[in-house]
Design goal:
219 residues, alpha+beta, five-stranded antiparallel β-sheet, 4 helices, 13 strands, globular
């Protein structure tokens, strides 16, 4: 019979400090983001254009993530639109501002995997759309177009849209992080306004996304 030893030799490491593992990882993350933000800023100053990427975040935390990134010097953006009006006791309460696409934050960063991986350490961030090694890119021009359409009210909930969609129909997403991607309608809409749920075939899986009806085009 072979006897197994249950003792180990050697000295424990990283026990001299009083900080936790999470604190050490936070410092590493902050260092990567500081470096990435500085390189991105230098690229803009020299006339270059760093690409944009989309972060998937917890729904309802989009503006919180944007503020956190802004505090770190990382350029980010959450295009907003006016939400649905509320009708109470014969009185219309104007809708509050909400993200055009729930659960996503746009961020501009030098396209290096280690810097993008640093974004995953920001609270409420789930992942980088497409992954850190091969992220889905957006051009500066597309981001400007998307945010401009949002500011002009094109995606406001109450804005009439000459489009009706049925469940199972194929549509095209016309702007934003999923621009020019085909999708399948999950929830039908005959109202001519508001949001619908679509399913996007992405990286071998189906990604459900809530989008304004105005963001879609029938195929």
């Amino acid at each position: 019979m072979i006897m197994q030893r249950s003792t180990f030799t050697g000295s424990p490491i990283a026990l001299q400090g009083h900080d936790r593992f999470a604190d050490r990882m936070r410092r590493i993350t902050d260092g990567l983001l500081d470096e990435g933000a500085l390189l991105t800023a230098n690229l803009r100053i020299s006339g270059g254009r760093a690409p944009w990427f989309a972060l998937r975040v917890w729904t309802g935390r989009e503006k919180t993530v944007e503020k956190s990134l802004d505090a770190m010097g990382v350029r980010s953006l959450v295009p907003m639109r006016k939400g649905p009006d509320l009708r109470r006791r014969h009185r219309v309460v104007p809708g509050q501002m909400m993200p055009v696409i729930h659960g996503y934050v746009l961020v501009q960063m030098v396209a290096q995997a280690e810097y993008l991986a640093g974004l995953l350490g920001v609270e409420h961030v789930i992942d980088v759309l497409g992954g850190c090694d091969r992220p889905m890119r957006l051009s500066d021009k597309e981001v400007s177009r998307f945010s401009g359409l949002a500011r002009s009210g094109d995606y406001d909930w109450e804005r009439p849209v000459a489009l009706q969609v049925r469940a199972g129909e194929a549509v095209l997403i016309t702007a934003g992080p999923f621009c020019d991607r085909k999708a399948t309608v999950v929830t039908p809409s005959k109202k001519g306004r508001g949001d619908v749920v679509v399913s996007i075939d992405f990286m071998g899986g189906e990604v459900p996304v809530i989008v304004p009806l105005a963001l879609l085009k029938k195929l």
